[in-house]
Amino acid sequence: MTPLVFIAAALAGLAIGTLGGGGAILTVPALVYLAGQGAHDATAGSLVIVGVAALVGLIPHARRGQVRVRSGLVVGALGAAGAVIGSGLGQRVEPELLLTGFGALLLIVGALMLHRAVKRPSDRPEPETDPGPRTVRLVVAATIAGLLTGFFGVGGGFILVPMLALALGFPMPAAVGTSLLIIALNSAAGLLGRSGQLLDLDWSLIAVFTAVTMIASLLGARLSTRLSARTLGIAFAVLLLGIGVFMAIENLPHLV
Questions:
Q1: Disulfide: which of 158, 183, 217, 256 matches 17 by Cβ 3.0-4.6 Å?
Q2: What's the predicted TM-score (pTM) here?
Q3: Whether 250 contacts 34, CB under 8 Å
Q4: Which domain holds residue 178?
């Protein structure tokens, strides 16, 4: 691993521990552009790295009571089937198209998150809505998050954090903590759909990348206690937008 790959692994861990997601946003490009992995191998390896790091980063959040286990398990279960299906679909897409779609998704979600962070700086949850529409939003959002997790080979935190905050009304700290539980579950489900790739992965690279990411995720979890919900939201949105622009610039010329 080059120094740049180590730095990317550390930043991925910090994103996971601090923001409850964003690790795969850095992991996938790092494995592709810095470690020379193919798009499909990078997305599969990313599920291992991000899933393990999320599980480790979950511990300090749980100790602070910022993980809503029941909601996390429900959302994780709803997204599991979608993750398996998404994994199968993702392996059938051309690498350039896969990475371009990934970048476009980050731009959309980043813009939505930035709008919310600027408009609603409070840590208070969203007002309660009718149980019916709330349940529908939960089922739809969790299924979409699972599909995207499997398709793009990510933990899904960039979808889960805004979903928990916007659709379920979680305050940002609870959205961050709970998303880590769901990321671990979705990553495991996504790997089931890519089981045929596992023997071909560069496990030495994945092991080192995972170790660095795990350590950084613990540091990120501690750092999150010193940041406001508004700061976390803006930082998360800026991260998404920056990586989305980079990936679009890198891959769009190959599709023209």
A1: 217
A2: 0.72
A3: no
A4: 3-255
